[in-house]
Amino acid sequence: MTNLTPATEPDIADATEQRAQVEAEEGHRRTSSWRLMLPTMTPWLAVGLVLVVGIAVFGIVGPSLVGDPSTIRDIGLTGPSGEHPLGTTQTGQDVLSQLAWSTRGSLQIGLLVGVLATLLSTLVGIYGAYLGGIADEAFSLLSNVFLVIPGLPLVIVIAAFVPREARGWWTIGIVLALTSWAGSARVLRAQTLSVRSRDYVAASRVSGERSWRVITVEILPNLLPVIASQFVFAVIAGILAEAGLSFIGLGSSGSQTLGTMLFYAQNGFALSLGAWWWFVPPGLMIALFGMGLSLINFSIDEVINPKLKTVRLHRKQMRRIARMEKEGRA
Hints:
It is a single chain. By secondary structure, this protein is mainly α. Helix content is 72%, strand content 0%. α3 packs across α14, α9 packs antiparallel against α10 (211-219) and α11 runs antiparallel to α14. The termini are far apart. 38% of the residues are buried.
């Protein structure tokens, strides 16, 4: 079986041990192993957390504060006003109410895709690599098959095959999860093969520990940053894919998402009518949520690959030296 994993895949366990050794050599108080797996609070991480938490609170609390998004009024298409801060649609439906309910729907699908895709990739990647032999070959073959299948066309075919009345938000979430776990499984398999060969894991296996305990106690904690990164990426991919499906009319029926808002705005000729308040808010919400998750993912990448953190600290130090030289010349 051809191994498609790059030979230069960063090893989170090695990185943690190297950082602990450097702290010991420099005489610093040793940081706990759990703290080493948390990202450093940087301005980018703070911005990402504010965006994600703010949008999540809006999607959770917002629907209980706004009215019914399906209420039809005889005021037609109107711009933002005091009564309707984001205006109304052609049928007089409040855009702010639709935005709050649609944000909740997109978050539900993104979270479902993230959880299912992470569980599948963890099962196939970690469990297969731990077992080795024929089981590992079978799991690798399965993930390779899903890797070479074009994801978006497969999602469109599956979504079109499911009857519209049975196409709920959870159905779309399951379909998206089934097509988005293979890449993460390959990454987790490479990390598991590295951790599995370590002495403390071999000692646990020789001492007769059960497989589930070796995986959950000895292997899984070393892979938490990688799993967290893959989960965040799966949530982003799920929300974007659902928006794309809804925009072409293959989204969930009976539930509102940011993608369905864009679909109805397109069908209502919002762009040609200049009704920017109808399509800009859902598009901006998708962009801001994706940006927030990406900034969080960048910070997690520094835990997985400490070379990225070294580069950032080096740039920060160079900017400080340049600023001191400039102040000295002044």
